[in-house]
TrEMBL record:
GO cellular component: eukaryotic 43S preinitiation complex; eukaryotic 48S preinitiation complex; eukaryotic translation initiation factor 3 complex, eIF3m
Gene Ontology BP annotations: formation of cytoplasmic translation initiation complex
Function of the protein: Component of the eukaryotic translation initiation factor 3 (eIF-3) complex, which is involved in protein synthesis of a specialized repertoire of mRNAs and, together with other initiation factors, stimulates binding of mRNA and methionyl-tRNAi to the 40S ribosome. The eIF-3 complex specifically targets and initiates translation of a subset of mRNAs involved in cell proliferation.
WD repeats: 6-47, 48-89, 142-183, 187-228, 284-314
GO molecular function: RNA binding; translation initiation factor activity
Keywords: Cytoplasm, Initiation factor, Protein biosynthesis, Repeat, WD repeat
Subunit structure, interactors included: Component of the eukaryotic translation initiation factor 3 (eIF-3) complex.
Protein name in UniProt: Eukaryotic translation initiation factor 3 subunit I
UniProt cross-references to InterPro entries, sorted A to Z: eIF3i, WD40/YVTN_repeat-like_dom_sf, WD40_PAC1, WD40_repeat_CS, WD40_repeat_dom_sf, WD40_rpt
Subcellular location per the Swiss-Prot or TrEMBL entry: Cytoplasm
Length: 326
């Protein structure tokens, strides 16, 4: 499996997202400039210029017409995917971290960090079809979570919002009323910061990665713990294969410890686990720093990883991967 190295960012990667068709890959980094690439050959298609801080996450609409990004410059921005034009900017009192469109792209959920005397929030914004009608008004604001919210995503049929972050607790909220419906169990749940969260293609279950050196698979409706994948390093990024019973985990040590070890000792590889049996089935090395972002292509034939080293690595699976009896 020979990776394609994509160098377009000057700073560490933070997030990767494929569009629904799987032909475009969007990358976010600490260098202020989200970038779009062709997903098959890794050619850079363009950049989105306008943020003045690290860009923490992004999402692309179902028709690949619009991109939304969340940044440390205290804004979330809507972009025209094909022209790179900024369409609208949602302003906040704190850095915007996690962004995601709902099914239908008429709503977006955005989280803001704890900053100065502002507590973290989860906010739902209505996304107007015509950008002229777009407003900054929030349809819902959820507060009361202690510690940074690293990810907020929509649950099945947009009925719920699932949040996870620094306090190691996963919560499910009613997306209409903002009422807390479920909370992960302290015993069976994560013991340290949840760094990442990724949903299955049908949204029925999701996986979380944590600094407690594990990833866990959960039921999206009941928040029942289904599986746990144990590894020997903090997990920064996770994803679920859309076609195989595999999950991928990536991580490494904290950035401040990286310079003291060589790259092999740093364990900077994407590790694959059998989703059902919870066993490690393989790994892909290559990054010269911790892996901060992972994403499977929706067709299941490739995946990409983004690291502290500023590179995006695009890996196409060879035929052996598809012969795994899963």
């Amino acid at each position: 499996m020979r990776p394609i190295l994509m160098k377009g960012h000057e700073r560490p990667l933070t997030f990767l997202r494929y569009n629904r068709d799987g032909d475009l890959l969007f990358s976010c980094a600490k260098d202020h400039t989200p970038t779009v690439w062709y997903a098959d050959n890794g050619d850079r298609l363009g950049t989105y210029r306008g943020h003045n801080g690290a860009v923490w996450s992004c999402d692309v609409s179902r028709d690949s017409a619009r991109l939304i990004t969340g940044s440390a410059d205290q804004t979330a921005k809507l972009w025209d995917v094909s022209t790179g034009r900024e369409l609208f900017s949602f302003r906040f009192d704190a850095p915007a971290r996690s962004v995601e469109f709902a099914i239908g792209d008429a709503l977006a959920v955005i989280t803001t960090d704890n900053f100065m005397d502002h507590t973290p929030t989860v906010q739902v914004k209505r996304i107007a079809e015509d950008v002229e009608d777009q407003t900054e008004e929030s349809a819902l604001v959820i507060t009361g979570i202690k510690g940074r919210i690293n990810r907020a995503v929509w649950g099945p049929l947009n009925r719920t919002i699932i949040t996870a972050g620094e306090d190691a607790t996963i919560r499910i909220w009613d997306s209409e009323t903002g009422k807390l419906l479920k909370e992960s169990d302290k015993e069976s749940g994560h013991q340290k910061t949840i760094s990442s969260l990724s949903k299955s293609p049908d949204w029925s279950h999701f996986i979380t990665g944590s600094l407690d050196k594990s990833a866990k698979l959960w039921d999206s409706r009941t928040l029942t713990l289904i599986k746990t994948y144990v590894t020997e390093r903090p997990v920064n990024a996770v994803d679920i294969s859309p076609t195989h019973d595999t999950v991928v985990l990536g991580g490494g040590q904290d950035a401040m410890n990286v310079t003291m070890t060589d790259r092999r000792a740093g364990k900077f590889e994407a590790k694959f686990y059998h989703k059902i049996l919870q066993e490690e089935i393989g790994g892909v090395k290559g990054h010269f720093g911790p892996i901060n972002a992972l994403a499977f292509n929706p067709d299941g034939r490739s995946f990409s990883s983004g690291g502290e080293d500023g590179y995006v690595r695009l890996h196409h699976f060879d035929s052996d991967y598809f012969n795994i009896k899963i």
